[in-house]
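Help needed: design a sequence for this.
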């Protein structure tokens, strides 16, 4: 996407999803692994891989589908969702296809009213979007009931800069591999492997926001090098790491975020900048 696409908004990244709320402009055709949910406070114009165009207020764009933003909107939500999450699988099961008209039809329950509420905390906004779509919200709430799973989630950030294995984490918290794998899927709605990947992306973005180079951020987050980090962010979001960081500007966590053990971003105030 062009550098001027993201402006005047805020964003967050959490394991399983990434949110941006702000001005969105033209974007050339691209594709990415994350499901993309668009809600605009007004009309936007989208184009699918066959060149068909549609003006709409909202859309659900499936994973790996080529698409372009022909005309954006000054106040738009872009929500990227892990397709392997419980929520992502439910959206896929709803039958979203490769036609831009059907992308818009799949999002017909998403209206600008979702953006008009005063509480624009990321978790609340995303849960409202998923609620309107009638899909599971656990990948957002992340409220963990099992203490061993909480231990595992607290342990992961301490080792994320290096290799991470389910066996190592299971041994560290005193539970079997199969049981821990099940807990991630049932309570968080995300597989252990994909949770770790999104946690690495979150750490890398935090590092870039903190002033690190891409190479430093890649190593801090456990990627091989800056090329590896760039490949993963482009494959997941269709964005280079630098643009992803711009789309994840510091945002104060909500009260609910204190209950969320899946990792609220903590970005120093000195990095809050005008874009």
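Sure. Designed sequence:
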């Amino acid at each position: 996407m062009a550098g001027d696409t993201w402006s005047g908004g805020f964003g967050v990244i959490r394991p399983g999803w990434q949110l941006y709320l702000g001005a969105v402009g033209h974007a050339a055709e691209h594709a990415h692994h994350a499901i993309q949910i668009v809600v605009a406070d007004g009309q936007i114009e989208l184009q699918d891989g066959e060149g068909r165009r549609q003006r709409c207020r909202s859309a659900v764009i499936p994973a790996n589908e080529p698409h372009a933003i022909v005309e954006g909107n000054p106040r738009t939500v872009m929500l990227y969702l892990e397709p392997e999450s419980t929520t992502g699988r439910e959206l896929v099961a709803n039958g979203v296809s490769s036609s831009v008209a059907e992308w818009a039809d799949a999002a017909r329950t998403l209206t600008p009213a979702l953006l008009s509420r005063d509480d624009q905390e990321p978790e609340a906004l995303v849960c409202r979007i998923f609620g309107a779509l009638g899909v599971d919200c656990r990948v957002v709430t992340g409220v963990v009931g099992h203490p061993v799973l909480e231990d595992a989630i607290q342990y992961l950030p301490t080792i994320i800069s290096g290799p991470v294995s389910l066996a190592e984490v299971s041994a560290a918290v005193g539970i079997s591999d199969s049981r821990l794998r099940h807990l991630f899927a049932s309570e968080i709605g995300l597989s252990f492997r994909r949770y770790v990947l999104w946690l690495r992306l979150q750490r890398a973005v935090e590092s870039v926001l903190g002033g690190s180079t891409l190479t430093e951020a890649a190593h801090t987050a456990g990627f091989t090098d800056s090329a590896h980090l760039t490949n993963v962010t482009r494959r997941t979001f269709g964005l280079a790491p630098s643009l992803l960081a711009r789309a994840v500007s510091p945002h104060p966590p909500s009260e609910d975020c204190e209950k969320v053990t899946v990792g609220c971003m903590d970005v120093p105030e000195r990095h809050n900048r005008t874009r």
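Confidence is low (pLDDT under 50) at residues 252-275.
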